[in-house]
Amino acid sequence: MEKNIWLDLGYWIQKKIKSAGADHSALGINHSRSVSVDYRDGKVEKLKESTQQGLWIEVFAGGRYSNHSTNDLRKPSLEKFIQNAVDMTKFLEVDEFQGLPDPELYEGQPDVDLDLSDSGFSKLTAEERQARARQLGAFVKGKDPRIISIASGFYDYHGNNYYLRSNGFEGHSESTSFTQGVSVSLQGKGDRKPEGWRYYRARHLEDLPDAETTANEALKRTQDQIGQTKVATATMPMLVENSNVPGLLWRLMHPLSGGAIQQKSSFLEGKQDTQIASEALTLLDDPTIVRGLGSRYFDGDGIAAHPMPVIEKGVLKNYYVDVYNARKLGWKPTTGGSSNVVIPPGKRSPAEMEADIERGILVTNWLGGNANPTTGDYSLGVAGWLIENGKRTQPISEMNISGNFAELLMSLKEIGNDPYPHSSFRSPTMLFEGISFSGS
Fold this sequence. Notes:
- There is one protein chain.
- The protein contains nine helices and 17 strands.
- By secondary structure, it is of the alpha+beta class.
- The protein has two domains: 5-223, PmbA/TldD superfamily (PmbA/TldD fold, 2-Layer Sandwich), CATH 3.30.2290.10; 228-440, no CATH class.
- The strands form three sheets. A six-stranded antiparallel beta sheet has the order 3-2-1-4-5-6. It has a five-stranded mixed β-barrel with strand order 7-12-13-14-17. Strands 10-9-8-11-16 form a five-stranded mixed beta sheet, with no helix packed on it.
- A hairpin with an 8-residue loop joins strand 5 and strand 6.
- Helix 3 runs parallel beside helix 4 (211-223).
């Protein structure tokens, strides 16, 4: 790793923590810059640029543990900060499970270039950022006489992070991200003013869809809401479009975590190596995808990143277990959190799947709701389309689905061939059968 002022500062901090009386330490130094440009109806609404730097430290002293953070990286201030942190740690209770990971877990990081940072970030000018944000809205203007307002934005981020652990770990991560989005509000029937949006995010600027495509999709999604209503309560198939699958499946991440298992607050406790979903579902955690939004070389504990099967043909294979909870459980740690959640694509397109639905609901948006990670019970609001004889016949909204995730996962019938690339959830369209919809 190339030495620089941030890493040199890290080693200085590490020595200070040791001399203050700690047995071991971990630390991270971050430096980032972000810019956001928002337009509304063709005029600048907000410009924001933020440059931040910060430090967090973990202190291990006499079997006790604490963590601290600061944004003041001046050495005189840091000396006081470090001494106070170590002194306070000595007043805490002993926690036998706290400690740095086994250094063997640091070994074997991916040897591929994940290409997480766009070198062109530094070349973006203020004028180019404004032009991008303005152009997104300009593609919508005048395309529908019912338009009330158009909001558009362009956002970019660049971050550098350095990590040290006193038992030999040294890590660096650099990444960029770019986001563009459009939202449109229309005059609907009566006093209704539906609003729809579309946004995309990518590690590299060139991986974003073109502005016109994004704008047209935002307008179309808003127009599709005109005339939304409830339909009669029924049990029907549910087709969830690919970009909305993450809004459903992210609710599995907590029940799959080592912390939830250890605290007995997961409906998936004790389910490893058992069938928890239909054979249609395979879920892989893969941190090695080039330019992936969740890609990484190591996790928060410094554990080297490796692809990990989570669910294979419906069978639960692994939990997300960090070092601390692994010690409490007496297990081997896997990784403390998800990276890229990949669902391998199926064979048919969403259009082909939709054409075979006699009567069902296509979900294009979630309208809030909740899920209980301990029991698996859920209740979610949905919006989208009623499908009859393979055709979209009525836009729907303010309907609810409710049930239990254990049953929902078992009801998965088919996976589409369209994995969504603009999220850390690489999810295709998913078809569930026998879902209870509450309507009129």
